[in-house]
Recover the amino acids of this structure.
DNA sequence: CGTATGACGAGCC
DNA sequence: AGGCTCGCCATAC
């Protein structure tokens, strides 16, 4: 990853670092918090190219279906699902988790302002403009 | 600068 | 519910 990702990717990582254990956020949710309402795929790209030396709980970001989206990690010990189960999250028979139970509420006002600056309120995100 | 590529998502069958 | 199509957005080439 380029050395210039210091704005968007950095914001994304910062947000993910604020997801508490046993809670999960969707790619779209992180994207909205990062300021790119329809940039879910970009969040995926950001986490995909996450530097190893950065401490980011990437496993807590899943898709809107409540399923892990990695696919390549069937490894029972290092796979995304395994990491989440280790935190106490339970998946159903179809490999999905209940977002109503484990879904993260998002950044609180203080965290939002720390990220975007004071004076800016958290938008209701209709995700439809343009 | 155009095209391809996703760890996505919403809408339609 | 499950599968497909299309739109999205930052990057890589």
């Amino acid at each position: 990853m380029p050395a210039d990702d210091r704005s968007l990717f950095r914001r994304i990582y910062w947000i993910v670092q604020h997801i508490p254990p046993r809670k999960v956020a969707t790619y779209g949710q992180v994207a909205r918090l990062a300021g790119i309402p329809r940039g879910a795929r970009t969040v995926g790209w950001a986490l995909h190219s996450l530097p190893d030396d950065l401490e980011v709980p990437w496993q807590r970001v899943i898709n809107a279906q409540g399923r892990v989206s990695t696919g390549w990690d069937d490894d029972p010990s290092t796979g995304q699902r395994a990491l989440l189960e280790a935190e106490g999250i339970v998946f159903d028979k179809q490999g999905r988790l209940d977002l109503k139970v484990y879904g993260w509420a998002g950044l609180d006002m203080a965290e939002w302002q720390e990220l975007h600056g004071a004076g800016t309120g958290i938008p209701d995100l209709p995700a439809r403009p343009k």
Summary: The radius of gyration of chain A is 15 Å. Chain A is about 35% helix and 5% strand. Residues 26-28, 31, 38-48, 58, 61-65, 68-73, 80 of chain A lie near DNA strand B (CB under 10 Å from a C1'). The helical segments of chain A are 8-16, 27-34, 40-48, 80-86, 99-102, 109-116.
